[in-house]
């Protein structure tokens, strides 16, 4: 049960970060716009937030 939660957290983190990186590259190379835009930042920071949740759950799981 817990391994499913951790697996879903990792998949969510990777998807959010990869979508953010792909959007950055498309904006930069295709449209010639700035490298960072608000959507890209939100996706990457959401991925980092999910990563810190993952670390928090792992740390609390080892205490029990």
Briefly characterize the structure.
By secondary structure, this protein is an all-alpha fold. About 85% of the residues lie in helices and about 0% in strands. The mean pLDDT is about 80.
Description:
This protein is an all-alpha fold and 64 residues long. The protein has one domain. Helix content is 84%, strand content 0%. The chain has helices at 2-29, 38-63. The protein starts with a helix and ends with a helix. The model has no long low-confidence stretch (mean pLDDT 78).
Strand content: under 5%
Low-confidence stretches: none
- Helix proportion of residues, in percent? over 70%
User: How many strand segments?
Assistant: 0
The shape, in one word, is: elongated
- Discrete helix count: 2
Whole-number tally of structural domains: 1
Radius of gyration: 15 Å
Helices and strands, in N-to-C order?
HH
Describe the main β-sheet briefly: none
Q: Kindly report how far apart the N and C termini lie.
A: 15 Å
* Overall pLDDT level: 78
Computed structural class: mainly alpha
By oligomeric state, this entry counts as single chain
Topology:
Elements: H1 2-29, H2 38-63
Helix pairs in contact: 1-2
Transmembrane segments: 9-29, 35-54
Keywords: Membrane, Transmembrane, Transmembrane helix
Question: What structural keywords apply?
Answer:
84% helix, 64 residues, mainly alpha, elongated, 2 helices
